[in-house]
Amino acid sequence: MSIVYGAARQLLKTVPGLRRFADSPSGQALRYRLALHFEDRPGFTFTQFHRLPAQLDALVGPVLDFLEAHRRPDPIRIVVIGCSTGAEPFTVASVLLERRPQLAFAIDAYDIDPDVLAIARGASYSIDTVHANPLVTADFVRSTFEQEGDRLVVRPEIARRVRFEQADALSPDFRLRVSTADIVMAQNVMCNLRRPLARRLFDNIAALLKQRSALFIDGMDLDMRERCTRICGLVPLAYELQRIHDEARLVRGERYPHFATGLEPFSQRHRNHERRYSTIFLRDS
Ligand SMILES: C[S@@+](CC[C@H](N)C(=O)[O-])C[C@H]1O[C@@H](n2cnc3c(N)ncnc32)[C@H](O)[C@@H]1O
After folding, report:
1. What's the rounded Cα separation, in Å, for the pair 243 and 223?
2. 38 vs 2, which has greater pLDDT?
3. Which mutation among 59, 78, 84 tests ligand 1's pocket best, with the greatest number of atoms within 8 A of CB?
4. Which residues constitute the domain of residue 10?
């Protein structure tokens, strides 16, 4: 954090007139903008199972409908970038097997950190880890895990759908190594990177999209998401926008407006509110 930014934050907190402004909606928006541009971005590996149920509804509904409208015989390929300890790819595999049992699919999940990948490959979690997210349901836990002593182990029919590999999504050869996919997920990776790096990572990820494909991209600075997706000609999926956004805010806790990883409240007043708040974008070219 720069000295000037630190001093500005301190003034906003301590000078009474400035503090009143800082707590107003416009003051919060200003503080958040400053955080986006000047705050350090520590590299979190935080993840949770069944994080955004409304986004999973979108996946099994309109997203697969869109992809299957031009169905080819080969399985749907899903690539998850920044998969951390595996909660996200296992959640996706479990939900697809449960709600789209006829669908042929395979998931390739990547992370830069060998320690989180070791946990992901083990596919065994404490009960507290699985239940950490209040949106986890008993049905999800039943259909995803088998209990072994005090551990919850991912069912083998789910685990075998996911392959984990170490890769740096910022490296120049990333797109060649990973190759293209029908669905690309890169969630909560870019909000943890400094903005020029996040921009570079977005370009690498967008290059993985097949001509007809979907990008899942919660956890990216919203102004950057608006700009980057527009430049790439991606179309926001306007499905349950506010529900998905509110679930994403729940995960981020009370971080807005203090930290760059916070998430502003949903507002239809934004001119491009669909592009700003959508976490799912379609490519059809
Ligand atoms: C906050 S976690 C998000 C996990 C999961 N996607 C989710 O939303 O729950 C971010 C993950 O991105 C990984 N990551 C950060 N930089 C990366 C890079 N350059 N290439 C691949 N993974 C990266 C981190 O190691 C971390 O596990």
Report:
1. 20
2. 38
3. 84
4. 3-38
